Amino acid sequence: MHTYETTLRLHQTDSAGIAFYGSVFLIIHECYESFFDIAAILNEGKYLVPIVHAEADYRAMMVLSDRITVEMGLADTGRSSYTLAYRLTNQRGEVVAEAKTVHSVVDRKSGKSIEMPDSIRDRFAKL
Asked: Which domain holds residue 87?
């Protein structure tokens, strides 16, 4: 399990100070970036890991200045894809959202699916 903490900012809310629905995806992507060295993947230049599916369930309101804790875990792996599951809680311990993202490993030049590199599998061992 990887944990990431953030604060809900003004630009992530609507005019009532409640989180805009897309904010969950921004927050979980920040969590994802804090776990993986995305720059290294991009600089290596051999493969990419685009998100091919994303979903979220909203359990409670997130409001301006809420402290959000994200727990990220590996939900599934395949030959060339992996699914990450996220649980977001606020400073009161309430689950405010749950989300999943499915990532496909593709060859950078052709865009075709490739077998997941050992470097990614090794990183998952830390979850």
From this structure: 2-124
